[in-house]
Design brief:
The protein is α+β, with helices and mostly antiparallel strands. The protein contains 5 helices and 8 strands, in the order βαββααβββαββα.
């Protein structure tokens, strides 16, 4: 069985990534990892975040917190770069690569000076969420055989 790194993210953030709405994952630590990871929706739902972004989620058919999958891998994504946040203002942040994080993307993260934005690209939502037990940080996920072909195709 093949393995890839996984990243556990609370809901609704994991779903926003799977939908292609959220392109950066804000973290307190940098990552040197580059490449494909599994996006795992943790078992906790941030209720305040759900309420803040309920209108966006409704456009994708998610009408309640009960519609958010938990304890499952919902997508794969590629970590392209890691941006250190060097300035944080009311409506945008600036990374050390002079990338401005603004608008809805700014609202989707916590971009305080000294934090990091993990840039995600090539996001592929899985056809069906796959149950998995997540962990803190990047962890090894054994890719189930029945979806290895899909994962291989989406990651190439």
């Amino acid at each position: 069985m093949e393995e890839m790194k996984g990243l556990t993210i609370r809901q609704p953030w994991a779903t926003l990534i799977a939908l292609g709405e959220k392109k950066l994952e804000s973290r307190s630590r940098r990552t040197h990892h580059r490449g494909i990871i599994a996006i795992h929706a943790g078992k906790q739902i941030d209720k305040n975040a759900y309420e803040r972004f309920a209108e966006v989620l409704k456009t994708y058919g998610i009408h309640s917190m009960n519609d958010l999958p938990v304890g499952v891998v919902v997508a794969t994504a590629e970590i392209k770069r890691c941006h250190e946040i060097v300035e944080d203002y009311k409506e945008y942040a600036l990374s050390n690569q002079d990338v401005v994080i603004d608008g809805r993307e700014y609202q989707y993260g916590f971009y305080e000076k000294g934090r990091f934005g993990w840039e995600l690209d090539n996001v592929y939502a899985l056809p069906e969420p796959i149950p998995a037990k997540g962990q803190l940080g990047l962890w090894g996920w054994q890719i189930p055989e029945e979806i290895q072909a899909f994962i291989s195709k989406s990651c190439s």
